[in-house]
Amino acid sequence: MAKPYFRQVPNFEYVSRNAESQSISDYVPVKNLFKKGKLREDIFGNLNFFTKYKIIGDERPDNVAFNIYDDETLDWIVLLSNNILNIQTEWPMPQAVFDRVMLERYGSYENLYSGIHHYETSEIKNSAGTVLIPEGTRIPNTWKTDGNFVQINNSKISQIFSGNGVVPTTTINVTLKTGIKGINVGSEVIISNVSETEYNGRFIVTSAVIPFGDEICRAFTYKLPSIPTIANPVLSTSESEEVLFKVGTGGNSYYYEYYDERLENYTLVSSTFFVNPVTNFEYEMRIEEDKRNIFVLKPQYLNVVFNDLDDIMPYKKGSTQYVSATLKKGDNIRLFE
Questions:
Q1: Number of structural domains, the chain?
Q2: Given CB 3.0 to 4.6 Å as the disulfide criterion, which of 94, 108, 230, 332 pairs with 58?
Q3: 304 C-beta neighbours (distance < 10 Å), count
Q4: In this structure, are 28 and 133 located in the same domain?
Q5: Both 87 and 218 in a single domain?
Q6: How far, in Å, CA of 182 to CA of 180, rounded?
Q7: Cα(219)–Cα(172) distance, rounded to whole angstroms?
Q8: Which residues of 209-243 are buried (b: 16+ CB within 10 A; e: fewer)?
Q9: What is the C-alpha separation between 138 and 257, in angstroms, rounded?
C-alpha cells in the first residue's frame, strides 16, 4: 500500500535558470509545492477519527507510520493529522540534538540545569475550599519589586527608612507621596511590596504628621518587633498597585496574603508552601514532552484521505498552463526580459 506523499504531488514545468542552459526555452520539471494535501474539516475536527499516540525516544514520523499503518511511507498522514508544518520545531528533537541545542541556548550545563526559568504556584485554597490561586500559575523569575504601598485609599509612599541612617532602630519613618486622609495615632496600616520583608506587614501608627487644619496625613511612623537585619535601608518606590506576590530578601521570604471570610482574619502563606522554581531544563523538557503527545488517524479511515487526495492533487482542464492532470507549464518570462 506504499503511497509516498510527493509521488502524488503534480509537477510544474518552470523555465530553467541554469547558467549552462543552451536555450532560453529550456524548462525543468519541479514539484508544485503550492498543491498541499490536507484532512477534511469534518475529519480533522472530530476526535472519533483519531487515537492518541505517545512518541517514544527518537521516533520519527515514518517510525510512527510503520507502527500504526505498517507502512513507513504514510509519515505524511501522521504530520497532517497533527497539522505539523515544520518538523524541525514541531516534532520532538532527537536526544543528541536536544543536548546540543540546549547547550547552545543556555551557554553552560550549570545554567541549563540550575538556572531558574520562572516560578509556578501550588494551589491555594481558603478555609471554605475556594481556589484562590490555581496550581501552575506562572510567575516570572523577575518578580521582585521595590514598590511600596499603604493599603488605605491607595496612597503611595515616597520614602521609607529606619533610624537616623547610622544606627538601626525598630522605629520606621514613612513619608507619603499623596497623603492619606484619616490616618492618626492608633490607625492600622498594611505595608507591602517593600523588598526588605522586615518592613512588610500590618502595623499600628505610633505617630502621625498632620498639618494644622488639614486632615491629610503626610507622614507617620510605626515600630517593628525587632531591629531589621539590613541596617539603614533607604528604599525606592514605584507607582504600581499592590500585587498578590510580595518579595523580601534572602529568597525565602515571599508570601501571599488573603482575607479569609470564613475565619474573619487575614492569612499569610509562605512561599515555602506555594512557590515552586522551574529550571531551564524542566521548562524545555516540558515543551518536548508536549510534542510527544499526538493524534494519529485510525487506519480504517485511510481510504477516505486517499480518495480526497486523488481529488485535490490532479490539475483540472481549463487553464492555459494545463498540460495534463499531473503537469502544468509556466510562461517563459525570459522571452520578455
A1: 2
A2: 94
A3: 15
A4: no
A5: no
A6: 6
A7: 11
A8: bbeeeeebbbbbbbeeeeebebeebebebeeeeee
A9: 18
The whole-number average pLDDT for the span 326-335 is: 74
CA–CA distances in Å: residue 145 to residues 133, 141, 149, 153, 230: 20, 12, 11, 21, 17
Which residue in this structure is represented by grid cell 481558603? Answer: 126
pLDDT tens per residue, range 164-188:
544 567 888 887 777 777 788 888 8
Instruction: Quote the pLDDT of residue 63.
Output: 97
195 Cβ contact list (under 8 Å, min separation 6): 144, 145, 146, 235, 247, 248, 249
Whether 107 maps to a domain, the answer reads no
Residues 156 and 86 reside in one and the same domain: no
184 shares its domain with 263? yes
Task: Decide if 322 contacts 44 (C-beta within 8 A).
Answer: no
Cell of 96: 543528541
Element at 5 (helix H, strand E): helix 5-8
Q: Using one digit for the tens of pLDDT, what is the confidence trace for 67-105?
A: 999 999 999 999 999 999 999 999 999 999 999 999 999
- Express each pLDDT in 16-65 by its tens digit: 777 776 677 788 888 888 888 888 888 988 999 999 999 999 999 999 99
Whole-model pTM?
0.59
Q: Are residues 195 and 330 in the same domain?
A: no
CA angle 58, 59, 65 (to 5 degrees): 170
Contact between residue 199 and residue 228 where contact means Cβ atoms under 8 Å apart:
yes
Domain stops at, among 231, 254, 275: 275
Range of the domain at 293: 5-93+286-336
Query: Within this chain, do residues 62 and 154 fall inside the same structural domain, yes or no?
Result: no
